[in-house]
Amino acid sequence: LRTSLCLQFKPHHIAAGAIFLAAKFLKVKLPSDGEKFWWQEFDVTPRQLE
């Protein structure tokens, strides 16, 4: 698989996207601790994940 994702996006954005897609595919709800959502740990926004 050849892709230019590593040139287009920051590594932590790619990692967050992979987690998001895996959770969506497996129908797993990702945790939040009330004040902070999982994607905030990667410094991304929900819009960037979509």
TrEMBL record:
<protein>
    <recommendedName>
        <fullName>Cyclin-like domain-containing protein</fullName>
    </recommendedName>
</protein>
<dbReference type="InterPro" id="IPR036915">
    <property type="entry name" value="Cyclin-like_sf"/>
</dbReference>
<dbReference type="GO" id="GO:0016538">
    <property type="term" value="F:cyclin-dependent protein serine/threonine kinase regulator activity"/>
</dbReference>
<dbReference type="GO" id="GO:0006357">
    <property type="term" value="P:regulation of transcription by RNA polymerase II"/>
</dbReference>
<dbReference type="InterPro" id="IPR043198">
    <property type="entry name" value="Cyclin/Ssn8"/>
</dbReference>
